[in-house]
Amino acid sequence: MAETSTTTSFINGSSSIASLATDHLFTILLLLPMDSILYFAMTCKKFRYLATSDILWESVCRRDWGNTAVDALKSSFHDDEQRRLIPWITLYKQVSRVDSVCCYKLAEPDPDLILPVPRASHSLNFVSGCLVLFGGGYEGGRDLDDTWAVYIGNNSQNMLKWQKIQTGTPSGRFGHTCVVIENYLVLFGGINERGDRHSDTWLGQVSLHENLGISLSWQLLDVGSTSPPPRGAHAACCISSRKMVIHGGIGLNGVRLDDTWIIELSENRCYGTWHKIVSHPSPPARSGHSLTCISETQTILFGGRGLGYEVLNDIWVLHVTEGYSKWVQIFYELQNIPAGVSLPRVGHSATSIIGGRLLIHGGEDSLRHRKDDFWVLDISHISLEKMHPTRLNSKRMLANKWRRLKPEGYKPGCRSFHRACVDDSGRYLYVFGGMVDGLLQPAEPVGLRFDGELFLVELVLQL
């Protein structure tokens, strides 16, 4: 590596490691976790320059966060000089230790503009630099079939101007899932206002035009004769550049499901193939839970409402590699977690943020008390072997992986069945809608209402 050749003079000595070429040392360091690299830097002054260099730590950030997140983070700085003043090692440490978020209300200042109506159980995705909102449930159990989009670009705190997009398809629904695979949207299932469950799979593509106008085209994906049974209130996420996984939900006759399916898209995105995953053990039946991919092979399932209508707080990890899929439950004790009694929930959002962690927001408990809290769950460095339920230290090991974040700035209300998505940097989270506490009439007790608010959640880095 040419960029590191200037450090060769720092690597002299008689030990075998000191005799390695700088490029080889660089490669070895990139295989180590953060703490090990820092320990290596402390062993000898001769190695300190390489082990703390900006070139190495940008590579570590790209290794752990991905190129898309690093490039987006770099573009979020006001100028190159600001970026150079903040070493990558500092950024890495701050991301790994983030303990607070700052919320901003993204209000539209022009009252004459048409905005999306309040809703819940809709979909919200960040794709091609845009937020895309589709469907959801509305007052009276009605479904919505409208599509809205807004261009974000690199300015996360723009005053946003929604555009209503005429697509005609898919049909109105709520409780569906919609995930981003590369620059495509993949939508599955949902429930309409008559209570019918869907099992259709749609592929959507967003197009940006010179005047920042946005268009979205949907096509019904050909999946052949095999597909999951109809459902809504299930969970889904993208697990590779061509695959989506779904789990659970409410099927026909209101029965909660416990099955897991994966669809693989063809290279030309013209068709897809569904297959069912069989794993023992596997998560019990549930609805209103979350499924979030945190790495190329690991997907986390959390919470939801079980067969007995109980609200759950269990964690499962789906490990998927070529030709191999396995569910593993990881255990923890609520009393080991500060304010742990608030963890069980349904209708929450769980989003993968920068650093391969899970940001969980809102939801409701078994008494239908809605929440406004933010939690980070970090199991990115726990191996499947350590998560095995027969290991005695598994509960203790996970206890410090939960962290409640302190909210700053704007105070959004408690909500459930909202939707959230993160931008390309993994640092900015957008939240829209949901069910919130409210007054049905001024003289009546607290009731329930649909929300149409959009707000931004920023991970606070103490730079």
Automatic annotation (TrEMBL):
The lineage of its organism: Eukaryota, Viridiplantae, Streptophyta, Embryophyta, Tracheophyta. It comes from Gossypium raimondii (Peruvian cotton). The keyword rRNA processing does not apply. Residues 14-60 form the F-box domain. This is F-box domain-containing protein. Keywords: Kelch repeat. SUPFAM superfamilies: F-box domain, Galactose oxidase, central domain, Kelch motif. Gene3D superfamilies: 1.20.1280.50, Kelch-type beta propeller. It holds the Pfam family F-box. The keyword Disulfide bond does not apply.
